[in-house]
Amino acid sequence: MLTILSITVYHGYVHVIKEVSIGAARGEVTSVIGPNGSGKSTLLNAIIGLIPIRDGKVLLNGVDITNRPTEEIVTLGMTLVPERREIFTNLSVLDNLWMGAYQRYKDEPKKNIEKDIDFIFTLFPKLNERRHQVGKTLSGGEQQMLAIARALMSKPKMLLLDEPSLGLAPLIVQEIFRTLKELQEGGTSLLLIEQTYKEALSIADRAYILQTGKIVWEGMTKSMNEETLKKIYLGRKEVEKL
Predict the structure, then answer these.
(1) Residue 17: closest CA among 64, 58, 73
(2) Average pLDDT of the residues in 102-118
(3) Each residue's pLDDT tens digit, 5-62
């Protein structure tokens, strides 16, 4: 579904992403994990069109979306849940959801969007309880739920998530990852970026490890072992001391 072919991305003069290739299959959870500073967020922002790609291609369902405007990419069926949520803090939960569906207004009747909001409130009951609260009054976990919910309102076929566990309590992280698994089982494909690998790998079908802008390991998660992860995260010499 999503094919990333040897992309190269710079931040100014800094070479951040170095010929990275990734495949994310339809209906699967694909996880890209790696230490802090490995280039994970830059990778997602480049895929969704927020940062220019210097070389390589990004294909969504066979369509070349490389360096297309982000709003076009969303229309084609891919949406990003950004790092640190980025919700509209002065708008209510309900208004945030309506904002997530803004590209659907021209082509769909209002009742379709209202139906999807009802589904969101079934998926995230806590948001239903707080539908009229403004975003800044929500807890960190509730804001993360809202960020995911807002992205789902564009009806994406592929959902990109940047560090959804960041700064959240373990019980909230578990709840969010259970919901992500439900979305995948319902037919939404996920590309998940995480620094904390255990939760990500618990729901992922396929994984890639990114280190200093390069893919250093890839494969099905069932073939990944703890020793491999320690060598990537701690360095081989540190592993030998363990």
Answers:
(1) 58
(2) 91
(3) 999 999 889 999 999 999 999 999 999 998 888 999 999 999 999 999 999 999 999 9
CA distances from 143 to 150, 163, 239 (A): 10, 13, 37
Rounded to whole angstroms, the Cα distance separating 124 from 204 reads: 21
Spatial distance between the Cα atoms of 73 and 239, rounded to a whole number of angstroms = 42
Q: Which domains does the chain have, with CATH numbers?
A: 1-68+192-242 (3.40.50.300)
Query: Cα Rg for the chain, rounded, in angstroms?
Result: 18
Take residue 142 and report the two structure tokens written for it: 């509730």
What are the pLDDT digits (tens) for 55-100?
A: 999 999 999 999 999 999 999 999 999 988 899 999 999 999 999 9
Taking the C-alpha atoms of residue 54 and residue 219, their distance in angstroms, rounded to an integer, is 26
Residue with tokens 């250093």: 216
**Unique residue bearing structure tokens 């190269």:** 8
